[in-house]
């Protein structure tokens, strides 16, 4: 396959409208993408394949009944139009976790263990890769003094959200080794604990505030972006995952529920505006974990009803404007093209695409992503100007994989 960028610009601009490479197939996603209660264990949860342990955000799927799949599948613009918002600050864990229909799930190991937190798998019953154990000293009167880590997350509704921390302690006295400090946004540090008799030596979602009559931990939170932090308190305390949920959600304390998807990546490249008067940008949704193979790219602010495809490189190059284009190419080194997956932007001006991390196109053939890799993407598309038919490029996004 010819993947030379500058040499194919004019051919790309002149190619027939509506033409795309690869055979088009249609498949039903009624349960996986349009039903907010659909569970990730359904085989149709992923846009393509069953590699992921997260669901596509329900807010990406409003009103969708079918998708168009190509050799490397594109995601229909309507799937993505409701959820495309700006990337926020990255905390200890990469990216921003996105709640779905009143539930947010985050695995502790999605953060980097800091201080005296240890990622362990020695105690059975954990989910995914392991759990965090506090191996530092008891810090009963020193909240926020050691082992601080946290997560950025985005809630889909304003509500009273219950915090259910899946935790475990082994001391025969249920009031020992049973707590952690937690802070929500700019609020105070509060001790969160479990101490029912049955909690000793078992994973439990019991999570109570050390306040007043020791209620279940809850927060009144608005829709939008928030930040939660954890700080070590009791030696030996173990944390597997945390759920934030509204009342009545079926996944409130279900340890098999998948981790929530993330929006992640770093934008780069001083691009030019397209014919809409804006420059197009790419968001990445899913997970940076290579083993999950669950990343969707969504380019927005594109001209309506035009065609384009994604290009990719491991290297960032000096910005150039190739012949036949009015845009800026910021990829360097070996540049691969997803030319077998030409995507129409539709009336929404959005181009969605699910990556296959086992097959990143390069001039010498497809390569697989490995943890530690950074891959950079732009969307290359048809555009119009006073010069006539031209091409343009989106802003780049760099994805670091774990």
Q: Main β-sheet, in a few words? A: 11 strands, mixed
Distance between the termini: 29 Å
The number of helical elements comes to 3
Q: Structural class, from helix and strand content?
A: mainly beta
Summed over residues and divided by their number, the pLDDT gives a mean of: 81
Number of strands: 28
The count of domains is: 2
Q: What radius of gyration results from the CA coordinates?
A: 23 Å
Helix percentage: under 10%
Strand order of the largest sheet: 3-25-19-18-16-4-8-14-10-11-12
Strand content: 35-45%
Unreliable residue runs: 1-91
Shape: elongated
Describe this structure in words.
The chain is built from three helices and 28 strands. A hairpin with an 8-residue loop joins strand 18 (281-286) and strand 19 (295-300). It has helices at 9-14, 30-33, 77-80, and strands at 25-28, 66-69, 74-75, 96-98, 103-107, 117-120, 131-134, 149-155, 159-168, 179-184, 190-193, 208-209, 218-221, 224-231, 238-245, 262-264, 266-268, 281-286, 295-300, 307-313, 315-320, 329-332, 336-337, 343-344, 351-354, 374-385, 388-393, 396-400. It is mainly β and 402 residues long. The two termini are 29 Å apart.
What is the fold's blueprint, element by element?
Blueprint: H1 9-14, E1 25-28, H2 30-33, E2 66-69, E3 74-75, H3 77-80, E4 96-98, E5 103-107, E6 117-120, E7 131-134, E8 149-155, E9 159-168, E10 179-184, E11 190-193, E12 208-209, E13 218-221, E14 224-231, E15 238-245, E16 262-264, E17 266-268, E18 281-286, E19 295-300, E20 307-313, E21 315-320, E22 329-332, E23 336-337, E24 343-344, E25 351-354, E26 374-385, E27 388-393, E28 396-400
Parallel strand pairs: 4-8
Antiparallel strand pairs: 1-2, 3-25, 4-16, 5-15, 6-7, 7-15, 8-14, 9-13, 9-15, 10-11, 10-14, 11-12, 16-18, 17-28, 18-19, 19-25, 20-23, 20-24, 20-26, 21-22, 26-27, 26-28
């Amino acid at each position: 396959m010819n993947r030379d960028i500058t040499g194919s610009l004019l051919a790309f601009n002149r190619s027939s409208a509506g033409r795309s490479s690869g055979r088009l197939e249609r498949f039903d996603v009624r349960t996986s993408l349009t039903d907010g209660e659909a569970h990730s264990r359904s085989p149709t949860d992923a846009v393509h394949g069953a590699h992921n342990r997260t669901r596509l955000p329900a807010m990406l799927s409003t009103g969708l009944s079918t998708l168009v799949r190509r050799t490397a599948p594109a995601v229909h613009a309507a799937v993505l139009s409701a959820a495309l918002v700006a990337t926020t600050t990255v905390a200890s864990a990469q990216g921003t976790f996105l709640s779905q229909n009143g539930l947010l799930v985050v695995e502790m190991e999605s953060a980097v263990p800091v201080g005296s937190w240890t990622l362990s798998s020695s105690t059975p019953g954990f989910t995914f890769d392991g759990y965090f154990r506090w191996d530092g000293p008891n810090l009963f009167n020193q909240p926020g003094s050691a082992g601080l880590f946290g997560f950025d997350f985005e809630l889909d509704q304003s509500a009273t959200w219950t915090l259910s921390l899946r935790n475990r302690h082994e001391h025969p006295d249920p009031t020992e080794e049973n707590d952690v400090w937690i802070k929500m946004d700019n609020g105070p540090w509060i001790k969160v604990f479990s101490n029912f008799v049955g909690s000793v030596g078992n994973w439990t979602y019991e999570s109570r505030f050390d306040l007043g009559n020791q209620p279940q931990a809850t927060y009144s939170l608005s829709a939008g972006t928030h930040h939660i932090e954890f700080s070590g308190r009791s030696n030996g305390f173990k944390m597997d995952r945390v759920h934030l949920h509204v009342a009545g959600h079926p996944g409130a304390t279900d340890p098999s529920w998948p981790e929530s998807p993330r929006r992640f990546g770093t934008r780069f490249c001083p691009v030019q505006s397209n014919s809409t008067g804006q420059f197009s940008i790419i968001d990445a949704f899913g997970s940076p974990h290579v083993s999950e193979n669950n990343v969707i790219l969504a380019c927005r602010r594109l001209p309506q009803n035009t065609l384009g495809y994604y290009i990719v490189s491991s290297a960032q190059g000096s910005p150039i404007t190739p012949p036949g284009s009015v845009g800026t190419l910021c990829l360097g080194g070996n540049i691969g093209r997803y030319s077998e997956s030409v995507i129409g932007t539709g009336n929404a001006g959005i181009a969605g695409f699910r990556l296959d991390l086992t097959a990143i196109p390069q001039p010498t053939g497809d390569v697989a992503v490995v943890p530690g890799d950074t891959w950079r993407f732009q969307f290359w598309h048809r555009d119009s100007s006073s010069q006539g038919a031209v091409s343009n490029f989106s802003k780049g996004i760099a994805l670091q994989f774990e």
